[in-house]
């Protein structure tokens, strides 16, 4: 499985990847992007099976990234990993086509609870 991790913080991308390994998802091919625009461009060549994205990023934020993907016809499962998890954000994410929203700080169990139906360990 190919997974794209998009976050403007390199440290946070590393934490997400480490947590994925703790959840038993480390054997997957993983690419990183620094913002939604870069993530959108990376999707064209990488064709990920799953996208994990921060919400707040420069150039193109996470919800803009998701909406751009869906507008282009891309239906790749998309999950937010963000520090904000209000009901309004969750509703907006799901309405735009996200499979879930994992709130920071998170655990390997939170990843599997949200992503378990999409990924295999």
UniProtKB/TrEMBL annotation:
The keyword Glycoprotein does not apply. The keyword Flavoprotein does not apply. Keywords: Phosphoprotein. Residues 2-119 form the Response regulatory domain. It comes from the Bacteria. It holds the Pfam family Response_reg. It comes from Kineosporia succinea. The modification 4-aspartylphosphate is found at residue 54. This is Two-component system chemotaxis response regulator CheY. SMART domains: REC (SM00448).
């Amino acid at each position: 499985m190919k997974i794209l991790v998009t976050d403007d913080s390199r440290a946070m991308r590393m934490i997400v990847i480490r947590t994925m390994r703790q959840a038993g998802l480390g054997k997957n091919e993983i690419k990183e992007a620094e913002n939604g625009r870069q993530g959108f461009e990376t999707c064209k060549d990488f064709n990920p099976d799953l996208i994990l994205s921060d919400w707040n990023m420069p150039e193109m934020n996470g919800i803009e990234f998701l909406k751009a993907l869906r507008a282009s016809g891309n239906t790749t499962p998309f999950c937010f990993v963000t520090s904000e998890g209000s009901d309004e954000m969750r509703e907006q994410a799901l309405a735009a086509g996200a499979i879930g929203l994992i709130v920071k700080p998170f655990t390997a169990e939170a990843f599997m609870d949200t992503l378990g139906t999409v990924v295999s360990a």
